[in-house]
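Narrative of accomplishments. A recurring question from our advisory board has been how the design workflow behaves on a single, concrete structure rather than in aggregate. To address it, we present the structure tokens for one chain from the evaluation set, followed by the sequence designed for it. No filtering or post-editing was applied between the two.
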């Protein structure tokens, strides 16, 4: 059942219009939240928008804006604020309320990006119900990205993914370029069954329009022609240390592989091919920035979601001083250390020109 949000903006007598609206962007691991947010922030007239990246847990996936502290607030060039939260959401909003942008009423909207594994209900309860937030903030709506390629399997296997779709006001189907329209019909029917009331859009442009509508920016913003995505902002990876492991539940783990020395492009690609072919079902998410021996100034960005590995991207420059290879894995039923060991063995064997190791 979808949540029915109280119509705070219309009926609340105590100055609801002065409270800053919050839009929650949820969606399973790798479903395209960050891609959409990057695009959103490149739209004209986005000044006064704050993005709060909600990163509970030890492994940060989505911020390489500046050096990493536990909580940070960064003013972007276009006037947007970006804030990473790893602890108390209420505290983060209290801090945001005291920012110069909020104090001067320049802050017009906040978008909260949840972690892909998060059950959104506790976050929504906090945003809707915590008395410490009621004075400054109001929940405007929830958007959920759905990966057209992976969603059927994800919905089968992850309660959180079903909950994310169920609570959304807007379901944003992404990666429609990878799945022909007729093949999407079963997924659409399933989403309709989970959440019959949500507004459902297909494709990245429609998703952007839909998100803009939630932000009330539709009247002032026109979409530019489609262009190559620049992954400049929320970017992997804050890596506490190689071997850092955090458990979301009994089966799901996150792990960061860190390498100080540059890696061979062929070696990394072959290793990823092997791991995804053998263990793709249990490889919920892979996200990384790789220092390549053959192109040390241009890091390679890798994104994998279950069996699907997106074509690697090459960045024009390193996003920070940290030039180590950092790869985040979120896995189910795989000992994270085994993946790391496989890379090591794979590297060694490739260096010796022998066959790759057997799968993890
Ligand atoms: N082909 C295609 N790829 C997409 C689309 N949207 C996102 N991607 C790719 O999917 C991968 C994951 O996208 P992200 O935006 O990082 O996904 P996310 O939901 O933020 O991921 P988490 O932070 O791990 O939850 C990246 O390689 C994106 O380029 C799309 O519409 N089509």
């Amino acid at each position: 059942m979808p949540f029915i949000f109280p119509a705070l903006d219309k009926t609340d007598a105590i100055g609801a219009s002065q409270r800053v609206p919050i839009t929650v962007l949820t969606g399973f691991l790798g479903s395209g939240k960050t891609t959409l947010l990057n695009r959103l922030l490149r739209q004209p007239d986005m000044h006064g928008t704050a993005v709060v990246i909600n990163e509970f847990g030890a492994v940060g996936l989505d911020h390489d804006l500046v050096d990493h502290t536990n909580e940070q607030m960064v003013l972007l060039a276009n006037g947007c604020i970006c804030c990473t939260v790893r602890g108390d959401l209420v505290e983060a909003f209290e801090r945001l309320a005291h920012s110069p942008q909020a104090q001067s009423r320049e802050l017009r909207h906040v978008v909260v990006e949840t972690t892909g594994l998060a059950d959104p209900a506790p976050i929504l309860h906090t945003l809707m119900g915590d008395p410490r937030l009621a004075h400054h903030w109001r929940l405007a709506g929830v958007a959920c990205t759905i990966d057209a390629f992976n969603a059927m399997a994800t919905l089968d296997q992850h309660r959180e993914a079903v909950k994310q779709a169920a609570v959304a006001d807007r379901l944003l189907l992404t990666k429609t370029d990878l799945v022909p329209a007729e093949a999407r019909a079963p997924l659409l029917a399933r989403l309709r069954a989970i959440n019959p009331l949500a507004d459902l859009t297909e494709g990245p442009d429609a998703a952007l329009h839909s998100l803009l509508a939630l932000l009330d920016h539709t009247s002032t913003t026109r979409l530019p022609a489609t262009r190559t995505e620049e992954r400049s902002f929320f970017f992997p990876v804050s890596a506490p240390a190689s071997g850092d492991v955090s458990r979301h539940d009994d089966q799901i783990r996150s792990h960061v592989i860190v390498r100080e020395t540059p890696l061979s492009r062929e070696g990394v690609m072959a290793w990823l091919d092997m791991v995804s072919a053998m263990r793709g079902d249990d490889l919920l998410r892979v996200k990384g920035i790789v220092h390549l021996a053959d192109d040390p100034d241009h890091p390679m960005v890798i994104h994998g979601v279950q069996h699907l590995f997106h074509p690697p991207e090459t960045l024009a420059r390193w996003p920070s001083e940290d030039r180590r290879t950092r790869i985040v894995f979120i896995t189910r039923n795989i000992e994270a250390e085994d993946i790391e060991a496989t890379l090591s063995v794979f590297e060694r064997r490739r260096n010796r020109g022998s066959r790759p190791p057997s799968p993890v």
